[in-house]
Fold:
Amino acid sequence: MKTTRLAALTIAVTAALFSSQILAEQSVRHLPERDVTVPDTVSPSMQAVIGRPLSPIWREHPKSADDWKVLIARTAEARLATLPDLRERLGAKVEPTVIGGVKAYLVTPGSLPEGNRNRLLVHLHGGGYVFFPGESGTGEAIMTAGYTGMRVISVDYRMPPDFPYPAALDDAMAVWREVIKTTDPKNIAIFGTSTGGGMTLAMVLRAKKEGLPLPAATAPGTPWSDLTKTGDTYFTNEMLDNVLVSDDGWLGDAAKLYANGHDLKDPMLSPVYGDFQGFPPTILTSGTRDLFLSNTVRVHRKMRAAGVDAELQVFEGQSHAQYLADPTAPETREYLAELTRFFDKHLGK
Amino acid sequence: MKTTRLAALTIAVTAALFSSQILAEQSVRHLPERDVTVPDTVSPSMQAVIGRPLSPIWREHPKSADDWKVLIARTAEARLATLPDLRERLGAKVEPTVIGGVKAYLVTPGSLPEGNRNRLLVHLHGGGYVFFPGESGTGEAIMTAGYTGMRVISVDYRMPPDFPYPAALDDAMAVWREVIKTTDPKNIAIFGTSTGGGMTLAMVLRAKKEGLPLPAATAPGTPWSDLTKTGDTYFTNEMLDNVLVSDDGWLGDAAKLYANGHDLKDPMLSPVYGDFQGFPPTILTSGTRDLFLSNTVRVHRKMRAAGVDAELQVFEGQSHAQYLADPTAPETREYLAELTRFFDKHLGK
Structure:
């Protein structure tokens, strides 16, 4: 009897394992090797951006704090070189300042319309919580100030390797607590791209937790909302996105460097796991090739489920954050026009 | 002299060809072979849908009208078998009718709230302009009537192989001209998925052209807005989307069968090439693995550029139209809740 039962059990277990294995094999989508060309459904300037080779630094794996600092300095230098032309083109003025003890840049548009005098945008730059310290992180703020005609405070938050979590967020919150002393939060939006988008979300989650006033609107562009390699396009857009390319390069390393042992799924690090109830109106942006398309749409769906007035826009063919890659591209102007409309609609005067 | 000039020209031309070849080679993104698993960022029901094997019919290439009819009958039968359960689950009643000389189904929700008595939804079913004739095309109408609590007219438009373009659109317009005689167009929305989404767009373009009143809102779900293989995700999501899989299967054949020699880029066939000025408020839906993600976002961007109040939602991990694949999935309810809110906001009473 015992032997028979055991045999039956063995057969049952084997069958179960076998059928779950079949299921797993069916579930896996096998994608053949292939070459994908640049789509002709975007502007020539955007075709050039989409056609760029994979980011030359995507699979760097700095081994020490010093290695990181060399890479950070190199990328900052390249970015800084582009800023004088950008400032001139957009007619924006950039001044270093200190707000609530935190370094920041005040970016003023060439002309400040009467209706925007009492408005303020708070900007968090991107760069995986490691790149673009100091003035090198002001590019997006310059474009946004120039286009929206609104003043922007770009926060030069502290970053790893010297200052891991929660330094960056602490700095952003210190600036927030300070600016709402002099500007009505109903007249303020918070925005940023990639890490800046993730920080935008984390700031509101933390402001909610601390009982602080919330901004009137937020604009997280392709937010790094999940610091773990979780979400479909981390896999489906791998090697297709020419900006981030894969989580298995510097990106995944930067997540761990920033978290410094904290749980990567803590909503203060991966805000997609946060509670979006009561969030202000939000506009989210991504692209069809973006490694963070899932990071973006997962937040959008969670916000909609929580009843948030959340808009989504997804740009054809674009990899991560390419709506900022060429200030002269029609798609960049289109993106900034949407932001301008959105802020103008939701911000008080 | 002549020889020297010719030599110089030859060198210049060769250099130009060579550099453009280098550029072209750089622009191509080489994607290695790989296996992609089902994301765990969707509900278990949606994981089952996403994990389904590739559509068993995707690479059918019917060679004759009779071959098409066999395939059409087979798919219709399978779909019909699912409808009794769907009708019962949603509590909707389906009655055949004729409107403006065109066959249609009147789908009535189990309970019709007072505020919806004067409202009407016009539905165009999907199926590549060939599949789901007769009652087999009513599934989406049943779900939508049941969930929104609104009456739905589902148009059983004529299709190839017997009736190519413009029969389908002529039928849809005949229904439109008829229903606006008895229901205020301000109380009507037009909606549909895939081919139904493309037809929704084409109907409004044609109504504009003919000077007819427009509906109060439209909801094109992952619209077949471009009948040619144009747009990035036709390529990037090829073999990843388990529903359509590729344009190189029955889908591309169906486009040609329907067009019957007409220009595939005519906006009445590929509405993405139309003029969206003056379009009513529109909600567009797609998924990150959808072969028609580009078909969806290209329309969204064109609408936004034309100043249309156009919303976009993109569901995590979903292939083509999978927001309709399992009526019990939370994502399906989420989709239908968004549609309900949108119609309720924009339709008069």
